[in-house]
Amino acid sequence: MNGKADRYTAVAITLHWVMALGVLALAALGLVMVHGHLGLGRRFALYQLHKSIGVTILIAALLRLAWRHAHRPPSLPTHMPQLERLTVHAGHWLLYFYLIALPLTGWALVSASVLNIPTHLYGVIPWPHLRVLSSLHDKAPVEALLKSIHRYGAWTLLVLVAGHAGAALRHHFVQKDDVLLRMLPRLRRDRSIVTASFQETR
Fold first, then answer.
1. Which residues pair with 2 in a beta bridge?
2. Strands 119-121 and 125-127: what pairing?
3. What is this structure's pTM?
4. Computed over its alpha carbons, how large is the radius of gyration of the chain?
5. Among 18, 137, 157, 191, which residue's CB has the most CB atoms within a 10 Å radius?
6. Structural domains present in the chain
């Protein structure tokens, strides 16, 4: 393994923001799909996009875990209390859990759907159903259960993401350390640029 660094690697940063933007996109798509008044064709297209982004997040999360194992992240600030350190670590692992588990439940849900609609990632790459679920004789109760799990899991993930973002902003604007900056691209590494931009908007 590599030693500790003062910031995350470019690969880690890229995967982090792919997942972050993906989660926000899925949340918006999910709300539109459930509450929007859409035609059949438009709804089908959004569902396909939703599934495509979900698989992208799943792959990105698995790659992020593998990269984290090989490239240890920067140390937490020395001023951080032990209880807060434990909370940070627990929050990170909960995020990883939901970033992997939620796409898997979505995959299971699609596989158990009574409609049996095929998935093509971004309209190009065919994605298989889970055979053990797609071949069930009575899919309806399984689909209903998975739908509830996926829905409540999605809300839980959004709460975790909001807490994660709030903590990062607190570190930057209240604690005034580099926790947020080291997960930003190098273009935004200079604290003075970020702080000055914030102050100008106040």
1. 71
2. antiparallel
3. 0.86
4. 20
5. 157
6. 10-196 (1.20.950.20)
